[in-house]
Amino acid sequence: MGPEAFDGVRVVELAQWVFVPVAGALLADWGADVVRVERPEGDPYRGLSTQGIGADGGGVNLSMALANRGKRSVALDLRSDRGRELLDRLLETADVFLTSLRPAALRRLGLDAEEITRRHPGLVYARGHGFGVRGPGADRPGYDSSAFWAQGGMAHVLTPPDRDHPVAQRGAMGDRNSAMALAFGIAGALLRRERTGHGSVVDVSLLATALWTLSSDVLAALAGGTPRGVSGRGGAVNPLVGAYRTQDGRHIQLVFLESDRYWKQFCELLGRDDLVADPRFADHRARGEHREACVAELEAEFARRTFAQWQDLLSRIDAPWAPVQAVEELLTDPQVLANGYLGDVDTDGGAYRLPAVPVQFDERPPELRRAPEHGEHTEEVLLELGCTWPEIVAFKEEGVIP
To answer: Of 279, 302, 330, which closes a domain?
Structure first.
């Protein structure tokens, strides 16, 4: 095995909760030395086990582990002058400063982009935030349920019109998608620095990620139209795009976007040559004009076979379809297992599993490492900075480190 993509890159992470820490974890997966700076009382995300979040891993907080795997943890009190001095010494050794603090908090700590890039011109300064760094909402606290799901339009487009309230978001959807974008931005900035010698300021917001995710709807709105939702029961125009219910109450998703390409062989697979000959279904346009009749025929066909029978039957046609699966089924999905999309984390107390980063280099997933305990590497990192043991003892006595 050769070096990992980010071997030799040091990231200093001053962040909490999910979005920005996950970006750090993705970089750590591929070799970066991510030094996570936590306040003496720890990241509040650690405490959410009291709400049942991350508490089902046999003693391991799996939510914290997913967001912080492979990192080192240093606990520092940045409210003190000595704490900020130590952070600045740490930044002198860093390639990337990664933060989720809001602009006003960064300014109070002397850690705003203008000040840090002045002191460390080669540094990649990367920040993740809720609503962007400009405008009236720049200093608003932003979680993915607010900035990504609610304000970003996700809840609106995904809520059926007959519901009284918006559907609830699944956990950290916006956070983890935004983290991928932020890690991508950091990688780009490191490449730019390699070519030019200059650092960059990288920004990703939850709100921007929502707009990007909803690009098709945004394009419709920009064109003066109304974004159109698509029923799961057959496409709005194409009956060969949609989810169909099987005899045993499961669903199969068809995605035959090029319907004329697949219609004849699909009908032959079903033993329904009469559908091929039916002028109502002669081509894509005709099937769209007689959508309800076509959907009714397909629904009747799907109701004649079980979920397993449909999977076996459709495996004989080279066309895009998939079973509609529960999350629990992903744990044994042959494609998930064959490609290493779930990884094992080995610890002295046993092992647990986590989703792996979607990116693979050289056809292999990264080796997953455990997340650090709060402040686990404080002394180790301070020694690397040249601090002596008497100085470290003094820091403890002064409350700079716990």
So the answer is: 330
Q: 132 — alpha (psi -120 to 50), left (phi > 0) or beta?
A: left
Are 59 and 189 in the same domain?
yes
Which among 193, 182, 35 is positioned nearest to 121, based on CA atoms? 193
Q: Which of 168, 171, 167, 181 is nearest to 210 (CA)?
A: 181
Residue 95 included in any domain: yes
Which domain-ending residue is among 303, 330, 357? 330
Q: How is the beta sheet containing 201-205 ordered, strand by strand?
A: 72-75, 33-38, 10-14, 96-99, 124-129, 201-205
d(CA 366, CA 357): 8
In a domain, 269, yes or no: yes
Angle, CA 359 vertex, CA 354 and CA 360 arms, to 5°: 95
Q: Do 166 and 192 fall within a single domain?
A: yes
Q: At what angle do helices 206-213 and 173-196 cross, to 10 degrees?
A: 100
Task: List pLDDT tens digits, range 71-111.
Answer: 999 999 999 999 999 999 999 999 999 999 999 999 999 99
Q: Are residues 66 and 193 in the same domain?
A: yes
Residue 16 reports pLDDT greater than 60: yes
C-alpha–C-alpha distance, residues 72 and 370, integer Å:
10
- For 276-296, the pLDDT digits (tens) are 999 999 999 999 999 999 999
